[in-house]
Each structure stands twice: as C-alpha cells, then as structure tokens.
Amino acid sequence: GVCVTRRTPRSSFTMSAMSAQSAQCSTFASRKRVCGTPVKASRAFVVPTRAASSARSVVVEAADKKKVLIVNTNGGGHANIGFWLAKTLGAAGHEVTMNVVGEEGDKKMQKTPFTLFDEIRALGVKTVWCNPDALKSVHGDAKFDVVVDNNGKDMETVGPVADFAVAAGASQFLFVSSAGIYKPTVAPPHVEGDAVKESSGHAVVEAHLKTLPLKMSSFRPQYLTGYGSNKDCEEWFFDRIVRGRPILVPGSGDQLSSVTHAEDLATMIASAIGNDAAAGGNF
C-alpha cells in the first residue's frame, strides 16, 4: 500500500495560521481515540511564546481579550473542534462560553470530548447546554464579541445563532462548515475557490451570513483526528502506519483525502478572531 499526502494551495491567512504540529502516534492500545494520546492519557496543551514559535509551535495571541460564545454540536467528529477551540481560547486569556446543544444529561455527554470538559473549565471556560432557539432565554442580555457556530448545517439551526449574535452585539461570526459543501470531483481534497453545491445547507448559510452586519468567516474541514475524538474511523489509518501494515486504498487509489488534527484546526480558527484579514474568507 502507498500513503500519499498533498499540500494544497491556501490563502496567505490560512498559511500563516496553520503551522502544523506533528503528533507522534507511537502507542496504540486499541483503535479508538489513541492517536496523539501521551502516556498520562491527556494531550498536554501549552500556548507557546513567540520565542518558542521556531520550535514547530503555533503562537496564539490575545492582546485584545474577547468574549466568545461557542455553539457546539453534541456529537460527531466536529464536537472535538469546539473542545479544542475552547481550550485554545481559554488558555490565551479570552472569556469563553461553551454552549453545547441538547441537554447535559444526554447519554452523548458520557463520551469524549464532553468527559474532558474539566480541562476547559480549569481554564475559566463556562459550560452550558441549550439548543440554538433557546440562546436568548439561557444567555439573556449577555454580550459577546465573537460567536462561533460549530453545530449547524442549515438555516434552521444556524439562523437562530446568527440572529442571537447580532442581538448580542457580536462583531464577528465564525462558521464551521464542511468540505462536503464542494461539488464532487475525481480526486479530492478540495482547495478554496473550488465549485460548491449552491443548494447545500452549508452554502445557503454562508451566503446568508455575508448579508449580516458581522465579519464572517467559514471553515471547511474534511476528516479529523486527535485527542478528544469520539470516532475511530480516522485512527484506523494511523494504527496501521505505526504497526508497519499496508494502507488499504479502495478503487484505483487516485482519490486523495485530508485528515487534520482537531487542535491544528482550532488554532487556525482562533487565529481568525480579531483578524480583519479573515473577514469574508473561506478556509
């Protein structure tokens, strides 16, 4: 088997925000949630200094502290994005509220990354549970500088969050979209500027957000891995790599894919906060 990776062209903002952090995948006790997990079963998180940036680290600066609301999905691979984003922003000194959709007593909360929430609470992150249409009743007249939607896929779910963001005085709205927005091609992954399915829920949401009095940015990840994940399908590949096993590729082997560590994606999203260069961009 052959494992092929390709660095795709990206915008200058994306490149400046995405200094890759290499996670050593050396120990696999099982297929599930083990890639990048160190011996103490907790991926150590440090916000590096500027001086340390030369040592393959990403600098997350928070010169202007922001009040950030993250509306986070309660399941699937994207849930870990919100966890890492809250961790990144909390460590950088921002005032962060993690709003998970659904109920705190839901059985989904017995899975990672929700079982790891003490890690973000230790950084001062506030955790609450409510659905998008109940944001006003739960948060009242609270004001936020930035609202992040890491939950919705259509106007029914994102619309109420965007309306709340405007009412809460937010100046910036960050939408975690999906690479599923792109029209299928023979050999993905896609790059910014590729044709999208205009009628898809994600595309309709992105178009709507650009009409609002907010500086919006959209992020379109494909597949995710890393500490805190509640899915094991991506870990299968790394499990075989570290054991020297061939990577089984279906079909002709021409189709390419992209697997990103959730921490790297969260660091990129965090770098967009307060960054005018990210306004209106798709990444």
Question: How would you explain this protein's 3D organization?
Answer:
By secondary structure, the chain is α/β, with parallel strands linked by helices. The chain has helices at 12-17, 79-91, 117-121, 135-139, 155-167, 201-209, 235-242, 262-272; strands at 67-72, 95-100, 126-129, 146-150, 172-176, 215-219, 223-225, 259-261. Strands 3-2-1-4-5-6 form a 6-stranded parallel β-sheet, sandwiched between helices. Helix 2 (79-91) packs across helix 8. Residues 1-59 have low confidence and may be disordered.
What is this entry, summarized?
The protein is α/β, with parallel strands linked by helices and 283 residues long. It has helices spanning 12-17, 79-91, 117-121, 135-139, 155-167, 201-209, 235-242, 262-272; strands at 67-72, 95-100, 126-129, 146-150, 172-176, 215-219, 223-225, 259-261. β2 (95-100), α3 and β3 form a beta-alpha-beta unit.
- What is the CA–CA distance across the termini? 31 Å
Overall pLDDT confidence: 81
In the sheet with the most strands, the strands line up as 3-2-1-4-5-6
Order of helices and strands: HEHEHEHEHEHEEHEH
Residue runs with pLDDT of under 50 for 5 or more positions: 1-59
Task: Count the DSSP helices.
Answer: 8
Task: Report the C-alpha radius of gyration, rounded.
Answer: 18 Å
**What overall form do the CA principal axes indicate?**
globular
Structural class: alpha/beta
Strand % is 5-15%
Estimate percent helicity. Answer: 10-25%
Please provide the count of β strands: 8
Main pleated sheet:
6 strands, parallel
